[in-house]
Amino acid sequence: MNVSSGWGSFEEGLTGPTAYSVSKAALNALTLGLAHHLGRNVKINAVCPGWVRTRMGGAAAERSPEQGADTPVWLATLPDDGPTGGFFRDRRPIQW
């Protein structure tokens, strides 16, 4: 699982700081490429945890660390028939 950001989504317009957005877009491309090449036996997904109250997010962030961790934990514990090659926020697919 790769920790990405909506700021790296072409659908959302790469709206963050340029270097950050481009690096997350590259991570998203890597996620898709690995999922394609590794097949269904290995789960490769990306997650946008949202704006989380961490050192990076700061005290004004809207999500608690627990809320930010929910989808990554869910993705890390997917069953064998779970999704691969997806981009998720709040346990739901989002557009690349």
Characteristic key phrases:
four-stranded mixed beta sheet; Rossmann fold; alpha/beta; 96 residues; 2 helices
Please describe the topology of this protein.
Elements (H helix, E strand, L loop, with lengths): L1 E2 L14 H21 L7 E2 L17 H12 L10 E3 L2 E2 L3
Parallel strand pairs: 1-2, 2-3
Antiparallel strand pairs: 3-4
Strands side by side in the biggest sheet: 1-2-3-4
Low-confidence stretches at least 5 residues in length (pLDDT < 50)? none
| CATH C-level class | Alpha Beta
Shape: globular
Compact description:
This protein has 96 residues and is of the alpha/beta class. The chain has helices spanning 18-38, 65-76; strands at 2-3, 46-47, 87-89, 92-93. The chain is built from 2 helices and 4 strands.
What does this 3D model show about the protein?
The chain has 96 residues and is an alpha/beta fold. The chain has a single domain (2-93), classed as Rossmann fold (3-Layer(aba) Sandwich), CATH 3.40.50. It is built from two helices and four strands; from the N terminus they run E-H-E-H-E-E. The chain has helices at residues 18-38, 65-76, and strands spanning 2-3, 46-47, 87-89, 92-93. A four-stranded mixed sheet has the order 1-2-3-4. The model has no long low-confidence stretch (mean pLDDT 96).
